[in-house]
């Protein structure tokens, strides 16, 4: 289920629902639930995220790896706001935010990794994007998305 999550950015809602139904069926199989039973308690017990949050998690982790230099640079370029010349004296230069590159086609351009990664990264709280350890970042990100999904 986690293979190829970065491809799923911007997927239509009806396809996201289909993927969610597969995830729900797996949780029902594990807990021997009927189709009429609520699934959120099973997902909480398994500590699984909803499909849109799973996609967001995968993209944010990949973005963190690119910024730390762990993955190949062909996934970028990801430019930080602080790296832009002329912004040294602005308050935004002290943040860990990314520049969202311009794109032409709204259907395909917004799904490109540099655009989607910058949008998802910029939506995360400052306390999360300032974490430098990859394992700690994954843990805190999943906890953040889990609380946002189920509370």
The H-and-E topology, N to C, reads as HHHHHH
**Looking at the structure, what is the overall shape?**
globular
Determine the N-to-C terminus distance: 24 Å
- Measured as a percent range, the helix fraction is 40-55%
Number of helices: 6
The domain count comes to 1
Q: Stretches where pLDDT falls below 50 for ≥5 residues?
A: none
Name the structural class. Answer: mainly alpha
Oligomer: single chain
Q: Average pLDDT value?
A: 85
Give me the count of strands.
0
Give the biggest beta sheet. Answer: none
Round the Cα radius of gyration to an integer and report it.
Answer: 17 Å
Q: How much of the polypeptide forms β-strand, as a percent range?
A: under 5%
Give an overview of the whole structure.
It contains 6 helices and no strands. It is mainly alpha-helical and 151 residues long. The chain has one domain (5-150). Helix 3 crosses helix 4 (113-123).
Summarize it:
With 151 residues, this protein is mainly α. The chain has six helices and no strands.
Short descriptors:
single chain; 151 residues; mainly alpha; 50% helix
How would the blueprint of this fold be written?
Blueprint: H1 13-31, H2 40-46, H3 51-68, H4 113-123, H5 126-129, H6 134-150
């Amino acid at each position: 289920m986690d293979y190829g999550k970065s491809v799923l950015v911007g997927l239509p809602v009806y396809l996201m629902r289909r993927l969610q139904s597969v995830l729900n069926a797996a949780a029902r199989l594990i807990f021997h639930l009927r189709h009429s039973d609520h699934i959120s308690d099973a997902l909480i017990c398994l500590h699984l995220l909803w499909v849109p949050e799973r996609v967001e998690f995968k993209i944010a982790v990949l973005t963190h790896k690119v910024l730390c230099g762990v993955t190949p640079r062909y996934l970028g370029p990801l430019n930080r706001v602080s790296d832009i010349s002329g912004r040294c004296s602005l308050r935004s230069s002290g943040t860990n935010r990314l520049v969202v590159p311009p794109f032409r086609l709204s259907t395909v351009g917004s799904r490109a990794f540099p655009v989607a990664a910058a949008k998802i990264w910029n939506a995360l709280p400052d306390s999360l994007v300032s974490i430098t350890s990859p394992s700690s970042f994954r843990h805190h990100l999943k906890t953040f998305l889990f609380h946002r999904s189920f509370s």
